[in-house]
Inverse folding.
């Protein structure tokens, strides 16, 4: 798990856990890629949107420090098959403070980015070290 931001206010540790059944993380995990834009600018409306649209618990939504208004995410796969047969081992999510800072194609284009290939390899290596019997290549 890692986080990067060019904004020093956002380059802080976030939540200690990121459940895969809550919020945008759940969408990206379940759907292989996901995209969201035009989240509200006002803090209370933004929290309400996360609670109603993404089923994020209200106390969790209120504690989030990055008021992301557009997001794109894609799943990382390990070895052992294609499509539904492939092992799901992680996700990468990009967030923007701009309501339309990311485009619907961003999540699908992520695997082509050079940095994605490096992160993908690191996640697979880390996953393999935790699961030595796994065939993530």
């Amino acid at each position: 798990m890692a986080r990067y931001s060019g904004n020093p206010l956002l380059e802080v540790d976030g939540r200690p856990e990121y459940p895969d059944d809550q919020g945008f993380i759940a969408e990206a995990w379940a759907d292989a890629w996901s995209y969201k834009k035009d989240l509200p600018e006002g803090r209370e409306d933004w929290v309400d949107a996360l609670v109603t649209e993404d089923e994020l618990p209200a106390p969790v939504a209120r504690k989030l420090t990055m008021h992301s208004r557009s997001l794109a995410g894609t799943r990382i796969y390990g070895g052992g098959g294609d499509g539904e047969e492939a092992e799901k081992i992680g996700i990468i999510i990009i967030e923007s403070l701009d309501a339309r800072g990311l485009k619907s194609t961003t999540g699908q284009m992520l695997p082509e980015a050079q940095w994605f290939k490096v992160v993908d390899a690191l996640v697979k290596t880390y996953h393999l070290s935790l699961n030595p019997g796994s065939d993530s290549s």
Q: What stands out?
A: Strands lie at 33-36, 70-77, 88-96. The mean pLDDT is 82. The longest helix spans residues 114-130.
